[in-house]
């Protein structure tokens, strides 16, 4: 497991008990309400892509994402919660997925190489971000020039998240369906 430690914008994981409760809720959500594949079907993913699941939690999206990009693709599972990454490693092993790279962080810096991601997913994690500027700069650093960011505002108002994202000046809105957003990074001229 890659571990990136920095002194910049340190973030703290939730307690193990809170994490286990969240993991259980996501499991129930998948069974009774909506499977993540329904959301991922709207994302222009292709086999062989490199994707980053930023704030991946227990792999709710990471596992189906890894299946969608296939064995020639890669998925970086970025998380501050060690238990989440252990859960992802276990699920990946059960499904024989060798294309997931767990990245444990304590800041917004992932240590993933510059311009290496075709897609970054930020799903239901934005409400937990305290330094949004640091997050947006890191996502821009990760994205290839033609890469894209997919956001689901989760526990926040979608219009508020859209406004915050646009005010950053780093992204161009490609799609907004009233909730989910697909953005590309603005290229410097």
Enumerate the strands of the largest sheet in spatial order, edge to edge or round the barrel: 1-4-3-2-5-6-8-7
The best one-word shape is globular
Taking the sheet with the most strands, its summary is: 8 strands, mixed
Number of domains: 1
Structural class: alpha/beta
How is the CATH topology named?
Answer: Rossmann fold
What CATH architecture do you see? 3-Layer(aba) Sandwich
Low-confidence stretches: 3-8
The percentage of residues in β strands lies in 25-35%
Kindly report the average pLDDT value. Answer: 88
Number of strands: 8
Number of helices in the DSSP assignment: 6
Radius of gyration: 15 Å
Q: Can you walk me through this structure?
A:
This protein is an alpha/beta fold and 189 residues long. It is 34% helix and 25% strand. The protein has helices at residues 16-32, 36-40, 62-69, 82-94, 132-142, 158-167; strands at residues 2-4, 50-54, 74-79, 100-105, 117-123, 143-152, 171-176, 181-185. The longest helix is centred in the first third of the chain and has 17 residues, at 16-32. Strands 1-4-3-2-5-6-8-7 form an eight-stranded mixed beta sheet, sandwiched between helices. The protein has a single domain (2-185), classed as Rossmann fold (3-Layer(aba) Sandwich).
Concise synopsis of the structure shown:
Mean pLDDT is 88; it is low at 3-8. The chain starts with a strand and ends with a strand. It contains six helices and eight strands; from the N terminus they run E-H-H-E-H-E-H-E-E-H-E-H-E-E.
């Amino acid at each position: 497991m890659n571990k990136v430690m920095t002194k910049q914008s340190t973030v703290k994981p939730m307690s193990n008990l809170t994490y286990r409760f969240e993991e259980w809720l996501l499991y129930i959500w998948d069974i009774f309400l909506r499977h993540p594949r329904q959301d991922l079907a709207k994302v222009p993913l292709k086999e062989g892509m490199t994707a980053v699941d930023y704030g991946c939690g227990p792999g709710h999206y990471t596992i189906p994402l890894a299946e969608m990009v296939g064995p020639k693709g890669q998925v970086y599972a970025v998380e501050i919660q060690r238990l989440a990454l252990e859960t992802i490693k276990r699920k990946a092993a059960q499904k024989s997925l060798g294309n997931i790279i767990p990245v444990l962080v304590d800041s917004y810096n992932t240590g993933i190489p510059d311009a290496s991601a075709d897609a970054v997913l930020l799903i239901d994690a934005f409400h937990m971000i305290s330094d949004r500027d640091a997050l947006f700069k890191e996502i821009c650093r990760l994205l290839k020039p033609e890469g894209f960011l997919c956001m689901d505002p989760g526990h926040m108002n979608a219009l508020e998240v859209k406004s915050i994202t646009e005010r950053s000046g780093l992204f161009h809105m490609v799609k907004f369906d009233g909730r989910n957003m697909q953005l590309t990074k603005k290229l410097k001229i």
